[in-house]
Design brief:
Number of strands: 8
Structural class: alpha/beta
Strand content: 15-25%
CATH topology: TIM Barrel
Bound molecules: SN-glycerol-1-phosphate
């Protein structure tokens, strides 16, 4: 097991986690490092770098280096579209967009980057990525057929398929900036059938939303927009306080 997956697995034994998504195109280098330090001080467990399509390797490298020297938690690349791969990060989500209509997003792009990831020694963390309506921009770029919000069985089916294929994590994604997070009933339904860790992201903007998703069984919450819009403000603090509370801190 790679070091980052081991770190996540060990932490998950104590309770749910939070990851802060930073887009190096919007906040690169030292600006990203500042947000990352403040987020980790409040209890965020990892920094994910990604968000825009076509982030240059240079920008990703510069930001990963700055974040890594500022925080002790893992820095994980969250590729969207063609991967911006850099050895400066600790790991990369090696993800398949399971409900894409395009074979490119399911497996071809991954095949394209696999040798390079091995060559530079970046840890791949295998992840089944499932887009739930509305899906926002990632749903369009990824040519997804988003899981309808009321179709719990379809979300369960994709999630279980990821587990049966040997993937290490499942990510239910409503899309960055979604007006509402993945429905609580869907999270509860997926958690009921799944044995691997469940990540939930997209549209989480408040403590009460985080609390409801955690109660439904989300094990890792991802937020990005909330810090892009207001920095480390009351909304972010509210979300982190629910995560810390859920793990008994
Ligand atoms: C996007 O799930 C993440 O991939 C985060 O979404 O920007 O809406 O927090 P937000």
């Amino acid at each position: 097991m790679g070091r980052v997956l081991q770190y996540l697995t060990e932490r998950l034994r104590r309770g749910p986690l939070h990851m802060t998504l930073i887009d190096p195109d919007k906040r690169g280098g030292q600006m990203a490092a500042k947000v990352a330090s403040a987020a980790v001080a409040l209890g965020s467990d990892a920094i994910m770098l990604g968000g825009s399509t076509g982030i240059s390797q240079e920008k990703m490298g510069e930001t990963a280096r700055a974040v890594k020297s500022a925080v002790s938690v893992p820095t994980i690349i969250f590729p969207e579209g063609p991967a911006s791969i850099t050895a400066a990060a600790d790991a990369i989500y090696f993800m398949s967009l399971l409900n894409s209509r395009s074979v490119d997003h399911v497996i071809r792009m991954q095949a394209h980057s696999a040798l390079e990831i091995q060559r530079i020694g970046l840890e791949p963390v295998s992840l089944g990525y499932i887009i739930v309506a509305p899906g926002m921009r990632v749903g369009e770029v990824g040519q997804a057929d988003p899981v309808p919000r009321e179709n719990v069985a379809l979300a369960q089916s994709y999630a279980l398929a990821a587990e049966f294929l040997g993937m290490q994590l499942v990510y239910l994604e409503a899309g960055s900036g979604a007006p509402a997070p993945v429905p609580v009933e869907m999270v509860r339904g997926v958690r009921r059938v799944l044995r691997i860790p469940l990540i939930v992201g997209g549209g989480i903007r408040s403590g009460p939303e985080a609390k409801a998703l955690l109660a439904a069984g989300a094990q890792i919450l991802v937020t990005g927009t909330v810090t892009e819009q207001e920095g480390i403000g009351p909304a972010f603090e509210g979300i982190l306080s629910e995560v810390r509370h859920a793990r008994g801190e």
